[in-house]
From TrEMBL:
The protein's name: T9SS type A sorting domain-containing protein
Database matches in Pfam families: Por_Secre_tail (PF18962)
NCBIfam families, per database record: Por_Secre_tail
Domain Secretion system C-terminal sorting residues, every copy: 236-311
Native organism taxonomy: Bacteria, Pseudomonadati, Bacteroidota, Saprospiria, Saprospirales
InterPro entries (UniProt xref): Secre_tail
Residues annotated as signal peptide: 1-23
Record keyword Signal present: yes
Gene source species: Neolewinella lacunae
Lineage top rank: taxon: Bacteria
Keyword field: Signal
């Protein structure tokens, strides 16, 4: 991995100097932080990989503590004849799930959070939990990032240093193959460095990319790509729209239930319509847009076995 090569070049320059004393802490919970993560065990689309974007957007106060909201989007991943396509721009599907609340203790250089436990059926977030501790020294036991109430794993810090990665000079900790970068988290799991133990449907992560900024600045594109194989064709009109838009499509078979969901370009759901009794054949499905502010939106039709996403512009009435 490139991080290992970069670390070797910096090691001798950094040897003998204290990298933690006087260094400014780089926080993890910052607005607009975007992680791109590959999960190697969950089936998705054409192969055995799934790619996700984990995004910090917005604030929350719980029990008097201020947190940043961590959402998860699915990214369209296609395995082409030339091999897996992991290069940007990443096509981000508009639905998002709140998977955690993060906060930084900048004084003590620690990251805390409330997240969904993977093996729990409850949708409630965990209590405030230590996720990462960058104020450790070589030989110290790493605690917290496996997210258990107890810690059966005794993992110690084997190396501490600094490296230029993801656009900044970042202090890092190593623990027998796991690296943790300030502001980014684990090179394996990103901000939730023990993600396989939380309710994010993950087993084996790999951090592909990290960027702070708008989607357009970070090679993340809210996609209008269709993976709805149940329809011969799908057309959205009128576009631009004022009072309503229509999806026109032809279904190969009947469906008892479908959903139309509308999102703004930040991934926030702004409207939904449930549709029942769609038979095989042509359909024209309406969605009201009169109450939406002017701007760009994404409309997603979801049926059992597939979905389609279309983008439209709402103009002022």
């Amino acid at each position: 991995m490139s991080a290992i090569l970069l670390r070797v070049s910096f090691f001798f320059l950094l040897l003998g100097s204290s990298l933690s004393v006087g260094a400014q802490y780089i926080p993890t919970a910052v607005e607009g932080a975007n992680w791109v993560l590959l999960n190697s065990n969950t089936p998705n689309y054409a192969d055995g990989f799934t790619v996700f974007a984990q995004v910090i957007a917005g604030d929350s106060i719980v029990d008097g503590r201020h947190y940043k909201k961590l959402y998860q989007h699915r990214i369209v991943y296609v395995d082409t004849a030339m091999g897996p396509r992991l290069a940007p721009p990443y096509q981000v599907l508009p639905e998002r799930e709140l998977i955690g609340l993060l906060r930084d203790d900048t004084t003590n250089q620690r990251v805390y959070g409330r997240v969904h436990r993977f093996y729990s059926e409850s949708r409630a977030l965990s209590p405030d939990t230590l996720l990462q501790d960058y104020n450790l020294e070589v030989g110290d036991t790493v605690r917290g990032y496996y997210f258990f109430d107890f810690d059966p794993f005794r993992i110690t810090v084997t190396e501490k240093g600094s490296i230029n990665i993801f656009g900044a000079e970042r202090p890092y900790l190593s623990t027998y193959g796991y690296d943790f970068y300030q502001g980014v988290g684990s090179e394996e799991y990103g901000p939730l460095s023990g993600g396989s133990y939380f309710r994010t449907n993950m087993y084996s992560y790999r951090l592909i990319d990290y960027c702070v900024g708008e989607f357009s600045d970070c090679d993340l594109v809210l996609t209008s790509t269709s993976n709805l194989v149940l329809a011969e064709s799908v057309r959205l009109f009128p576009n631009p729209a004022q009072n309503e838009v229509f999806l026109e499509l032809e279904l190969k078979r009947s469906h008892q239930q479908a959903y139309l969901t509308c999102y703004d370009l930040h991934g926030r759901k702004v409207g939904e319509r449930k549709i029942s009794g769609l038979g095989a054949g042509p359909h024209r499905i309406a969605f009201p847009t009169a109450d939406l502010p002017a701007g760009w939106y994404v409309l997603r039709l979801t049926l059992p076995g597939g979905s389609v996403v279309k983008q439209f512009l709402k103009t002022a009435g």
